[in-house]
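DATA SHEET
Item: assembly model
Revision: 1
Owner: S.N.
Input lines:
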Amino acid sequence: MRRQTNLHGATGSALSPRAPESLNALVMHDGGVNAWLDDPENGTPIQRPAPALADGNLSYQIPGKPVPLGFYSTGTANFRYWTAVEALRRGADFWQARIPGLMWHMGPKLTVVLDDGVDLNAYYDRTALKFFHGSSAEGVVYSGESPDILCHEMGHAILDALKPELWNVGSQEVAAFHESFGDMSAILSALQLPVMRAAVIAETDGHLNRSSRLSRLAEQLGQAIRESYPDAVEPDCLRNASNRFMYQSPVLLPSSGPASLLTSEPHSFSRVFTGAFLDAIAGMLLALSGNRSAPTDDDLLQASEHMGDILVAGVHSASVVANFYSQVAGGMVQAAGQLNPAFLRPLKAAFVKRGILSLHSATSVETLANAARSMVGDGGGSESDARASTDIAIDGKLYGLGDVAVIVEAPSQPRRFAASSVVSEFAPAPVPSSESAARGFVEQLFRQGRVDLGGAVDEVDRIDPLASLKTHRLVKAEGALRLERILCDCGLHHD
Amino acid sequence: MDGQAPLPAGSIVPDTAESQAYVRGVVERGEAAWPDKEGRLPRGVTHEIVGQHEASGLPVLVRKRMY
């Protein structure tokens, strides 16, 4: 482990003087502790109020002799003890506020083993949270010293208390959601720290889904693993919630692979949902900030608390079925609408963009009408065959536009070659028809939030991200909406 | 099932396409194992093998850990 020094440059096992209050707005009445913000790799410890190991239904017990309260130096067992207690208490308090009365699966006290031997790992086994230590080029790494890892494992225990039926489900998607919940727990727990909120707002310029110390989880453990298995983890952390992984059926994915690929391994596949979660909370923050130039600390605190409530509601409402991601996402969208209509759009946009929810699922599911039928016009076929495109009408309800047709130019020239994509060595993908190609193109535009909906749809029904580069727009034309291109995107813009 | 003893509660039986894909992934990643004489599982293992499903040839598992 990299040698850390405390705020006064002290090292070793002795108690260190108190750190300056300026790093922490909280006033210490009953003493406090030094603790990491999110991960040891990120540097300077902060002061925190004395955390309670036992508190309500979500209490902990740590075997062995209790460590007296104090401001211990980093690199000591006493510091690791209190930084672990601080993170675990903070995380449990966050969830307890969302789910009053929640109790651990095994009872009121969850055992925490801070160092159970040599391994670069940590786990929850329904009796305890267990953490380990291992070697790295920079020294010994303790998984139980990282708030990210502590709050990830604690997240498993929270979800197990909230929805115990997930534990033994033989489903790749359910197992992956458990891992995602752990990472979401780490992110939401980190956001309860004022210093962390200020740091991430500054680092991301208020765009929370950019890569930051918040999105990068377990940097130090990731570094240690990378030394032995360079492709097993992200280049700068264990997992990064700021990612671009799209939903695919996990049944069709390989069972393992390098971190750069999406596989059905639960931690790998979890990144799809966690990525959507980060996009969603970033959108919620924009909504709460009301288009101010920069969101405030209070905006971010509110966004984190609301997201916690929304996530719990989504988990509560989700049926335990194969497509569990979409079940949770659907419940979250519903909960968001009840909590604050301004959250609907970012939630829908995030889940649609990742393919977790289909466009049709994300939009209103009121009565289907034959929008296209009334908008197509006379259906005359007088255009020249040489024209590269022809108009087709697509039901606007597919994109949340209501009872109106979207007129799209579809490619219609005769095919000269039987060219196709290849899905396997011997099985070419079917050549799409002009209409299906157009539908696919339009769906992709909507999924990526590239269409400026303008006044074409009510604000609460919008699913496009609050801040995204628009390449197309909808223009009203003879009772329908025509899709027009605004610009060509270079493809390097990331929302 | 060829096991005569009843399976533990919560056993994951690979009797559907989805559960077979799940169990196959666990096995391929080396995350399933029999317990040792003291009932302990090796490090890195998430599931205990408690039997075998005859039709698929895959093991029946019980989850023990979340990493």
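QC remark: The interface with chain B takes residues 119, 121-126, 153, 156, 160, 167-172, 175, 178-179, 182, 250-251, 255-256, 264-265, 267, 322 of chain A (CB under 8 Å).
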